């Protein structure tokens, strides 16, 4: 990995960028990573949130392509919390009815998304303060999720190491161990708009997803257990496809979204790092490649953004003005153990959870 220049800009509590009200948040800081190309990434240890990603367009003009806020205080006190830039978990995505059984014990989690559990519950990893350690080319954030926290079993020692390379890659390396059998499925929930955050709909972006199958859902976005071929459907992104082409198609799965908010099971060649998705924005020429070890990816097209939230540029985030590409194990995996398309999410003592995803930026 080539060197990137790391400049640690810690915001003191008095400067306002971490003017947070809750006393135990007084250790919040924001870290700025900068590489030789001028790409800038900002990260805070509150929620392990990526607060800013500034990359060039084909003319060299820089723009922030990550939706979010310009102060940590705003992330904490926003009127809505759609997980901008955050690491979500202990279980990223949904668990049906908030229930699962592990080694004969039934666990009940918060049902914080209708009748289901989403993104680790009421106080998921996006809403806690992580311990930060500056490392070469980046920052390592660590969190101990206690046994019983949000209803999950096991003391989970989790870290995510963010590094920025001179190839314009944000490398996200997740590691975890546990002292008791538990479930873990964490991911980053950055909302992207490659034309620049606040610049309107993402439906003009072209998306490619290297997957022939999705896991269709019910009205609550819980997988039915089926694996469906994408051929001939609005979910076939095996070739670069404009998102707006199928986002309002007359299709039951699209109606459930509404729009795109689904899980694709990747056509993987092996277990290593493979390209899951490629996002391209034609007016700027910006490209984002999502490269991962994970078996699946959630494409969420910003269907729940409604203009109420005003982002860092002072512009409202309207309907479908940002999209997420969340590498993951399939939703509700713990209730589909052993089924094709649902590799296990169980972590046991002595095992190590270890997975990497890269967001790689370029232009064409
Ligand atoms: C995930 C879910 C979406 C939505 C967002 C957060 O992407 O799949 O349904 O809940 O998180 O708003």
Overview of the structural elements:
The chain is mostly beta strands and 364 residues long. The protein has 2 domains: 2-188, Beta-galactosidase, Chain A, domain 5 (Distorted Sandwich), CATH 2.70.98.10; 195-339, Beta-galactosidase, Chain A, domain 5, CATH 2.70.98.10. It is built from 3 helices and 28 strands. The protein has helices spanning 72-77, 243-246, 252-256; strands spanning 5-7, 30-34, 40-44, 49-56, 62-64, 87-88, 94-95, 99-102, 105-108, 117-118, 131-135, 138-145, 156-164, 169-178, 182-183, 187-188, 191-192, 206-209, 213-214, 228-229, 241-242, 261-265, 274-281, 286-292, 296-300, 323-328, 346-347, 353-363. It has a 9-stranded antiparallel β-sheet. A hairpin with a 5-residue loop joins β2 (30-34) and β3 (40-44). The radius of gyration is 19 Å and the shape is globular. Mean pLDDT is 93; it is low at 1-21. Alpha-D-galactopyranose binds next to β25 and β26. Residues 82-83, 93, 118, 221, 261, 298, 300, 304, 324, 326 line the site of alpha-D-galactopyranose.
The level 1 CATH classification of the largest domain is Mainly Beta
CATH architecture descriptor name of the largest domain: Distorted Sandwich
- Count of the domains: 2
Overall shape: globular
Strand order of the largest sheet: 11-12-13-14-28-24-23-18-21
> How many distinct beta strands?
28
Assembly state here? single chain
Radius of gyration from the alpha-carbon trace, in angstroms = 19 Å
Measured distance between first and last alpha carbons? 23 Å
**What's the helical proportion of residues?**
under 10%
Overall pLDDT metric: 93
Low-pLDDT parts are 1-21
The CATH topology of the largest domain comes to Beta-galactosidase, Chain A, domain 5
Tally of contiguous helical segments: 3
Q: Strand content of the residues, in percent?
A: 35-45%
Ligands present: alpha-D-galactopyranose
Sheet with the most strands?
A: 9 strands, antiparallel
**Class from helix and strand fractions:** mainly beta
């Amino acid at each position: 990995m080539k060197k990137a220049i790391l400049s640690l800009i810690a915001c003191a509590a008095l400067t306002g960028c971490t003017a947070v009200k809750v006393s135990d948040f007084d250790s919040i800081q924001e870290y700025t990573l900068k590489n030789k190309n001028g790409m800038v990434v900002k990260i805070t240890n509150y929620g392990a949130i990526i607060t800013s990603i500034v990359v060039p367009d084909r003319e060299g003009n820089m723009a922030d392509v990550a939706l979010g806020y310009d102060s940590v205080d705003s992330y904490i006190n926003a009127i809505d919390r759609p997980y901008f830039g955050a690491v979500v978990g202990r279980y990223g995505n949904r668990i049906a009815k908030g229930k699962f059984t592990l080694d004969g014990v039934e666990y009940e989690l918060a049902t914080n998304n209708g009748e289901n559990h989403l993104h680790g519950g009421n106080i998921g990893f996006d809403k806690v303060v992580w311990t930060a350690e500056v490392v070469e080319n980046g920052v390592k954030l660590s969190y101990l999720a206690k046994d019983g926290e949000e209803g999950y079993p096991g003391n989970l020692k989790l870290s995510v190491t963010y590094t920025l390379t001179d190839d314009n890659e944000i490398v996200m390396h997740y590691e975890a161990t546990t002292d008791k059998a538990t479930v873990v499925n964490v991911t980053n929930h950055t909302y992207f708009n490659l034309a620049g955050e606040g610049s309107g709909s993402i439906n003009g972006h072209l998306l490619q997803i290297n997957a022939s199958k999705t896991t269709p859902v019910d009205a609550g976005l819980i997988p039915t257990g089926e694996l469906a071929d994408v051929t001939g459907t609005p979910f076939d992104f095996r070739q670069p496809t404009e998102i707006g082409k199928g986002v309002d198609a007359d299709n039951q799965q699209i109606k459930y979204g509404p729009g795109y908010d689904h899980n694709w099971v990747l056509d993987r060649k092996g277990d290593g790092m493979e390209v899951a998705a490629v996002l391209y924005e034609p007016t700027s020429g910006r490209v984002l490649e999502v490269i991962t070890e994970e078996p699946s990816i959630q494409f969420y097209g910003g269907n729940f953004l409604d203009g109420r939230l005003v982002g860092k540029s002072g512009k409202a985030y309207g309907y479908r003005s940002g999209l997420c590409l969340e590498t993951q194990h399939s939703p509700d995996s713990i209730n589909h153990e052993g089924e094709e398309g649902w590799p296990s999410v169980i972590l046991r003592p002595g095992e190590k959870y270890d997975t990497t995803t890269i967001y790689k930026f370029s232009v064409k």
